[in-house]
Amino acid sequence: MPAISIDTFFACSLMVILVLSAMAGTSKLLSPYINNAIDQDSAERYKEVSKYLLLNSGNPPNWGQNPAAMPETFGLAKTSADSPYELDVDKISRLNSENLYTLNYAQIFTALKMPDVSFRIEIKPIFEVSISPTATFNGTTETTYEFEILTEKHGMLVQADVKGYVIAESYLEATFVHASNGRISLNITLPNDVNGPALFAVLAKASCDSKVVSFGVCAFTHNSVEPEPKGTFLRLSPLNYVLNASFIYSEIALSSAYALTYGYNSTLTQTASNNQSATYDIPRFLDSSPQILVVAGRNSTAFFTEWTTYPQVPLQMGANFATSATLSNIFAYTYIITIDSALYECTFWFGGPED
Predict the structure, then answer these.
(1) Does 324 lie in the same domain as 299?
(2) 214 and 136 assigned to the same domain
(3) Residue 208 to residue 181: CA distance in whole angstroms
(4) Is 210 domain-assigned?
(5) Phi first, then psi: what are they for 156, rounded to 5°?
(6) From the CB of residue 350, how many other CB atoms can be counted at a distance below 10 Å?
(7) What is the CATH number of the domain that holds 287?
(8) Within-domain flag for 268
(9) Residue 175: CB partners within 8 Å, gap ≥ 6?
(10) Same domain (yes/no): 216, 250
(11) Is residue 141 a part of any domain in this protein?
């Protein structure tokens, strides 16, 4: 069998196994192993709780869209969902600590209404995208950068179609779609009269399922300007298809903003601004893909790009079971969930007090 066929077979097998096991609500016991009726009862109870959180909207049902709303009862499902395990993009985004309207664990713990249960939730793309700069070629009028892109799951390469976007000051360029068996090198060329630093955003769609889309973002040096860490200049908070860009510093002037998906891209329209923040409308693309939202501007004289995603994943929030010495019967349940037509992996951890 040709090598590319073998890669395709294993990549698709990986996805099929993951999707089928997760949609069936497969659970795994972390510690200890189920060995008595009490443990079995706990495992079944926590499994039903995890399914309830994914199948119910909570109260009020639209608590995700309203930044001032606190859920009285906790549920993550989209109101009037078309299918099981279809979650609300804003409820998920409000679980991310980067969001201005995030809920803290105490608020969610209260809304869960189970005082004897600690829990943790993680939501992430089904596979990972990593971007590594490998070479730079300097020219008289332009500079070419080489990147290696890996698409993988648990160390296994995933065959995917890869699309990239390059953002610098007053500059947006979309690369063509490239097929990859899990590892690919791409060259990006930037004019030397474009100010840096620059941002390289990649969206990758699994070859065996068009709804399985992941992403990676890499900030890199251009024209000797080093990028600052993410979140240095702006706090980006998408909610109800509006992006709030809160200023970390007072002397900030925004120049452009973009929404990027696998199939589409658009310049965002600024709807309001003051000396502390600005807001933009987020388009409703008909695309099974997360949106990468990029806002560019200047802090005094330094150019910057900030980015986030909508839904705002990956995220982890809740109890830290790794350091807990007071919990036993810790269980985990993994599901494949849908957010805006794209598939993600969701894992719950539950634990109760020691007997």
Answers:
(1) no
(2) yes
(3) 12
(4) yes
(5) -95, 130
(6) 27
(7) 2.60.40.10
(8) yes
(9) 163, 164, 165, 166, 186, 188
(10) no
(11) yes
Domain boundary pick from 182, 210, 227 = 227
Pick the closest to residue 198 from 164, 235, 227 (CA basis).
227
Give the pairing type, strands 277-281 and 242-247: antiparallel
Residues 355, 332, 107, 79, CA torsion sign: negative
Q: Give me 79's structure tokens.
A: 């109101």
Beta bridge partners of 153: 156
183 and 232 assigned to the same domain: no
In terms of C-beta density within 10 A (0-12 exposed, 13-18 middle, 19 or more buried), how is residue 337 classed?
buried
Domain boundaries, position 198: 125-227
How confident is the model over 83-105, as pLDDT tens digits? 899 999 999 999 999 999 999 99
Same domain, 151 and 191: yes
184 CB-near residues (< 8 Å, 6+ apart): 148, 149, 162, 178
> Which one, of 306, 62, 65, lies nearest residue 201 by Cα?
306
Backbone angles phi, psi at 39, to 5 degrees: -65, -40
CA-based nearest residue to 318, from 104, 123, 125? 104
Residue 172 shares a structural domain with residue 94: no
The tens digit of pLDDT for each residue in 178-237 reads 999 999 999 999 999 998 899 999 999 999 999 999 999 999 999 878 899 999 999 999
Task: Return d(Cα 60, Cα 53) in angstroms, integer.
Answer: 14
pTM as predicted: 0.89
Helix/strand/coil for 323: coil
